[in-house]
Amino acid sequence: MEYYDKDEEIERLTESLKNSKKSDFEFYDTIEPIYSTGKGLNRKTVEEISDIKKEPGWMRESRLKALDIFLSKPMPTWGPDLSGINFDNLTYYTRPGENKAKSWDDVDPKIKDTFTKLGIPAMEQKYLAGSVAQYDSEGVYGSLRKEWESKGVIFTDLDTAVQKYPDLVKEYYCKAIPPSDNKFAALNGAVWSGGSFLYVPKNVHIDLPLQTYFRMNGEQSGQFEHTIVIADEGASVHYIEGCTAPRYNTSSLHTAIVEIYARKNSNVKYTSVQNWSDSVYNLPVKRAWVDEGAHMDWVTGELGSKVTMIYPSSYLRGKGASTSNLQITLATKGTFKDAGGKAIHLAPDTTSRIVSKSISLDDGLTAYRGLVRMNEGASRAKSHVQCDALLINNDSKNYTYPFDEIYEPTAEFSHEATVGKIGTDELTYMRSRGLSEDEASSMIVLGFMDDIMKEIPMEFAVEMNRLVKLEMSKMGAVG
């Protein structure tokens, strides 16, 4: 807990938030969309989405091919149970308003109120170089500070980018993650809407993060954003995503695509903290192509959702490319977090590091599922994988499924894993210092997460801190 003790600002914000409720982020909005495709998915639905967006022919054709792939692929059965997803009962596209705003003052007042409750405008003013806000299927707001716009940085929702920068989008769209990759990549390819498009020119170093925030409000709906991040040669950028949704008795689906292209000698950091409600199936696909001398950082916090399946991957394609993948997963009562990371070493002198921290409360189930592959020719490649699980009581469960494929004799690889429970001795010692059992348990859990929490921006670290404390207090006694 040294990190929190020495950081007075973290402590101050934590104290101010510790009595707030999770419902602060699961509130319902009474906003009626101006347009919806209705329930169900077929060729007409896909054509309708393309028509309303006035897309070029190549995108329309890509959507229809992706639909055919989606319909032809079976549901995956190797992980969590996905039988609760009813594709016929989902709404695939809803439009909240007519226009995208460049000023928060111009956003629809009800939608603006939603994002104000989530703290997005205040965060933009204090900490961000730019932001995009998405509500259900469409971006409703986007801005970029003039100093970066003048240097050629592009940051907008992907729909706008298709219209304004079609050649640049076409060069990268679905190259790292084609629709044929898996069933849910194909679904996104057919019905995607919104997301972000970020391009950083050569040798441009953005010293503040850029953020996109996704809000899913509709019941029995889907959100299918597609994000593309391109850091050109020698560029550096930190991109952040946040996600929330209300809690419903029926299931919703989030299937996103994130494609990141780290060109030669660039540096990209991607941070994502999702807090979907436990009525959401969260099934994104995230992948980076990392070229010669480039570095890719993944930092993800998976807090909410009924089921999450997420495995951010880095394809180390050039000599000296490197990646770090730090992940926290929290499974609460009745939820399943199946998560991990992938590193594919395709070139000499590449390095990767994967650290996964899993916490299970009540009967929550966590699983680490990862892949490290070192191809022949990836000489002197190095990789380290660390999987740590913390089980809070007797009903908590964790599984580890590492896949390690080493085809290069000069490569170095190590893998370590630990599973532990909160011990009686630790609790007794901390309670002797005046802490309640809930407070003591929370401090142990936060200490367990500490090395990854240091990598998360302050506002998100505070939110994760608060949510962990809340979930621990809801459990009551640990046993």
Strand content: 25-35%
Low-confidence stretches: 1-29, 245-249
Task: Report how far the terminal alpha carbons are from each other.
Answer: 23 Å
Task: Bin the helical content.
Answer: 25-40%
Shape: globular
Number of strands: 26
- How much is the average pLDDT? 80
Question: How many separate domains?
Answer: 1
Radius of gyration: 22 Å
Tally the helices: what do you get? 13
Helix- and strand-based class? alpha/beta
The largest pleated sheet is described as: 14 strands, mixed
What does this protein structure show overall?
The structure is a single chain. The chain has one domain. Helices cover 27% and strands 33% of the residues. The chain has 13 helices and 26 strands. It has helices at residues 2-6, 8-17, 43-52, 57-72, 109-117, 120-127, 146-149, 158-164, 166-172, 183-191, 424-431, 437-453, 458-475, and strands at 35-36, 94-95, 130-135, 138-144, 154-156, 197-200, 210-215, 222-223, 226-231, 236-244, 252-254, 257-262, 267-275, 280-282, 285-290, 295-302, 307-310, 313-316, 322-331, 336-339, 342-345, 351-360, 365-374, 382-391, 397-406, 412-421. The strands form three sheets. Strands 5, 6, 8, 9, 11, 12, 14, 15, 17, 18, 20, 21, 23 and 25 form a 14-stranded mixed sheet that branches. Helix 8 packs across helix 9 (166-172), helix 11 crosses helix 12 and helix 12 runs antiparallel to helix 13. The chain is globular, with a radius of gyration of 22 Å. Residues 1-29 and 245-249 have low confidence and may be disordered.
